[in-house]
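TODO from last week: model ABC transporter ATP-binding protein/permease.
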Amino acid sequence: MEFIKKVIRKIKDGMLQEMFEETKWMYTYAKKYKFQIFFYIILGIMTTVMGLASSVGSKYLIDAVTGQDKGNIALIAIFIVAMGLFSIGINAVTTMISARINIRVNNEIQAEVYDKILVADWISMKEFHSGDLLNRLNGDVNTVASSILSWIPSLITRSVQFVGILAIILYYDPTMAVIALASAPVMLIVSKTLMKKMRDYNKRMRQVSSEVMSFNEESFQNIQSVKAFDLVEFFSNRLRNVQQNYKDVFLDYNKFSVYTSSFMSVVGMFVAYACFGWGVYRLWTGHITFGTMTLFVQLSGQLSSSFKSLVSLVPSAISATTSAGRIMEFFKIKNESKLEEEKVKSIQNNTQGKGLSVELDDVEFSYDATKTVFKNANVVANPGEIVALVGPSGEGKTTMVRLLLGLINAKDGQAIIKDINGVRCKISSATRRFFAYVPQGNTIFSGTIADNMRMVKPDATDAEIVEALKAACAYDFVKKLPDNINSKVGERGGGFSEGQAQRISIARALLRQSPILLLDEATSALDVATEREVLRNIMNMGYARTCIVTTHRPSVLTMCDRVYRIDSGVVCDIGEEEVEQLVRDF
Ligand SMILES: Nc1ncnc2c1ncn2[C@@H]1O[C@H](COP(=O)(O)OP(=O)(O)OP(=O)(O)O)[C@@H](O)[C@H]1O
């Protein structure tokens, strides 16, 4: 009793418990296909039974041919051929079922992971490199999906096969059955150690494979810098180093796999030889017929291959559960907070087109415990106003924009939006619908200009798109393109200058007609005259808009209603004189 309890405890803790949880998670996706999986298992068992029946059939065929039994040779031969043909048909059906389940589960998990990544807490997700995300989204999801059928269902069919072969051997010769089972204790003793090592190797393999993908992804994204700094050779060598790392882990794992499978094969081979030797001895002493001997030869071969397949399920189960664990990490991340959703809805319904204010009251924020980005920040921006955030680089302007977008949350104080009736609502991902945002850098997607614009307003007419492009001073160059607003844009705005891409991004934000517009260094690539014209147009579109800009250039500061400087963790509202001083200093 104590021993059983100890075994259960061992199973429950550590690696086995983890693998159990991961397997349980994998099979939540299989629930929908339980009937197909059940059918798949039944077909697998049928194939096994037919294989065994045809082996027994061949015993009777040989005994009939050698005159040791009175059987209908033609009938037995027809039976064996029929079994063979039937198995081929069943195999075709199971292959089709497996492909269908595989692709559906793959797409379902991939879509769920993708959605999760989009709604997960922004800061937590920042810990994953995008190459690692891609590797998990494709490689790990694919491994899990293809293992839905090659793990538990295969375990069932292979076990049935193993037990079936043993049962037949037991029926004809119990001693041989005992010999056949001789390997089981050896396997049980070594399996736990092997599994642990295998799982460690699997984790390392996945990790280095993510490193290779991250490296490739980053190099291609920054290919211009790689060329500009004449770093082609350097990066080419770095790739080889990353590959070397992958190769070392891969070969290590391969060596381990070869040793383990050789060890298993040697054990299997000795068992098969022992069975064969015992059969020969029984034939020699006249205890069994030639037909039974043929059956034993076939069964000992089948037993060793079925044993091998059972053993090979261990690495595939480990690989599947390791991948499942890597995907499950995403689902453990909390989602972005959505606060006061009802209030958000009522503000949306009651104040359409009437504008919204933004307020930060005594807000404190830090990314980690070691450094506060700012504290006691008090900021107000009202409809019809342009409010600027200025300050030295790295002092917290973008951080404040992230706070307004609900990507990060205040550690202290309150960040709220307020409608014209004075209804206040906490900022979270739920209030993001009131914002249009133009971030730093190029944020244009591949497709056409119109595709990019309709991303934020799917039913926008061509005229509306042109109007937004005009307001962002972008239509001047768009109208000269051969296909006007339907002209193609390359990846990350390829084919356009930085300033042109910025203006298309601003136009996209304007088309959204959100009450609050956030421009984070969004006009940095424009000349001063265009920058001022864009801001003027934005405020004269006949829409009650609150505009918050972060900038290093004082050229637009004279157009702003209020200017906040963020410096050394302090946010202060600077007066006209200081603004004029800033313009002069510039
Ligand atoms: N994801 C992050 N995790 C941890 N720290 C961060 C993160 N993003 C920014 N920081 C830190 O927060 C501080 C403020 O950064 P932020 O990007 O807000 O500055 P900024 O004023 O917008 O700078 P710039 O003018 O150069 O764009 C910096 O010290 C930066 O190192």
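Done. The pocket of adenosine-5'-triphosphate is lined by residues 126, 367, 373, 391, 393-399 (CB under 6 Å).
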